[in-house]
Amino acid sequence: MHWEKKGHIFAPSPTSWMHAYAQVPTPLVFDDFIRIYFGCRPETEDGLPVSQIGFIDVARNKPAEILHYAEKPVLALGSKGCFDEFGLHPISTIRVGDEIWLYYVGWTRMQSVPFNRAIGLAISRDGGNSFERYSRGPILGASHHEPYLQQGPHVKIIAGRWHMWYLTGTNWIPDADGRMEAIYRIAHATSDDGIHWNRDGRPVIESRMEHECHAGQAVIFRDGLWHMWFSYRRGLQFRNADGGYRIGYASSEDLENWQRDDSKCGISVSEDGWDAEMICYPNVVEVDQRTLMFYCGNYFGRAGFGYAELSDT
After folding, report:
1. Tens of pLDDT, residues 57-86
2. Strands 161-174, 180-191: pairing kind
3. pLDDT tens-digit profile of 164-206?
4. Which CATH number fits domain 2-311: 1.10.3720.10, 1.25.40.180, 2.115.10.20, 1.20.1270.10?
5. What share of the chain is helix, strand, coil (3-state, %, to 5)?
6. Of the candidates 3, 39, 90, which has an alpha carbon nearest to the alpha carbon of residue 305?
C-alpha cells in the first residue's frame, strides 16, 4: 500500500478566530461535502493557550477545495473545574440515528505536571453545526488501573458492537530541564451503547523504543484484514524533526491482536514544506471508492493539515 499525497488543505490564520494550530483533523462525510473538525487555538485575554473545535467544509470530490469555514466554536469550553475547562480536541464522529456523536478530548491545567486529559462525548442534533455535552464529566477517565490521562478516542461500530482505541497514560517522566512529559500508548475498549465502556488498559501496539508515545490511530477494514495507522514519537526530545511524530502501521485479524510493521505504512515526511519535519494524527475515511487520509504536519499541526489518497501500487 502507498499513500499519494494530494496537498495541504488548511492552515490557521491570525485574522480568524481559528487563530493558531489546526490539530487532529476529524472528517464527517455528507452528501455533497466532507466536514473536517479540528482543534484550534483562539487568542485569549491572559495569553494562556486554550483549544476549541472548529471545522471547514471541503468538496467531496476535491478535498483541497474549501467551501465553508466555521464562524464560531461548535462546543463551548467546560465549566470551571471540569475536565475540559481549558481545551477540546475532536477525535471521532459517529452517526447515531438523526444525531451526530462527537468523541473528544478535554484537557485541564495541572500543577505538578502540565495538564490532564480525559474523554468526553458531545451530541449534535442540527447536522453537526453545534454540539451539546452528553455529560459534564468524562465518559472515560482515570481508573484504578489507569491513573494517568486518557485521550485520542477512535470509535467504530463493528457488527453491532462499539469499539474504541484510545490513548492511556503510562507514566510522566522529566526531560533534561525538569519539564514533565506524558508517556502514553494505544489501548482498546468495547461498549454496548457507546457510553459505558469496558477496558483493561493493556497496550495493543508494541513499542520500538524506550518511552515511545503513540497517538492519532485510525482503523479500517480492507482485503480481509483490519488496518491501523497511528503516529509515534520519542518520549523526550520530540519537538524537532529527529524525534517528532511519524506514522506507523499495524494489522489485525480479530481487532484484539495487532502486528506492527511500520514499513507498510506507505507515507512519511516530505523533503520540504509543511510536513517535512513531522507527520501525525492520521484519520482515514472511505469516500466514493477512495480511501483518504487526513493528517497534520509540522509541530503537531501548527502548520495545519492536508490529505493523501491510498493507492494499491
Report:
1. 999 999 999 999 999 999 999 999 999 999
2. antiparallel
3. 999 999 999 999 999 999 999 999 999 999 999 999 999 999 9
4. 2.115.10.20
5. 0, 55, 45
6. 39
